[in-house]
Hints:
Number of domains: 1
Helix content: 10-25%
Strand content: 25-35%
Number of strands: 7
Bound molecules: zinc ion
Structural class: alpha/beta
Amino acid sequence: xxxxxxxxxxxxxxxxxxxxxxxxxxxxxxxxxxxxxxxxxxxxxxxxxxxxxxxxxxxxxxxxxxxxxxxxxxxxxxxxxxxxxxxxxxxxxxxxxxxxxxxxxxxxx
Length: 109
Ligand SMILES: [Zn+2]
């Protein structure tokens, strides 16, 4: 996937959390570091997320979770050095806007 032009993307604020993770492939850690997601394995309401720096954890599909809120509000300070997130991906994420009343629901992913 290559994208030369960065334009604002609008996502509906109440978008399904897992769909959002699949789309942006980024994970905010509790310490405010952004990691790149290598894989997501869904198991019902839970998913096993593996980052490029080989951290593995189980997340619950909740838009109200800490990670969901952090992603929407962009409360991240740093990008993980080991994950080596490409800059276009970070830029794309930075230009993403979460809106309350319109935007993509990411349902066809
Ligand atoms: Zn990482």
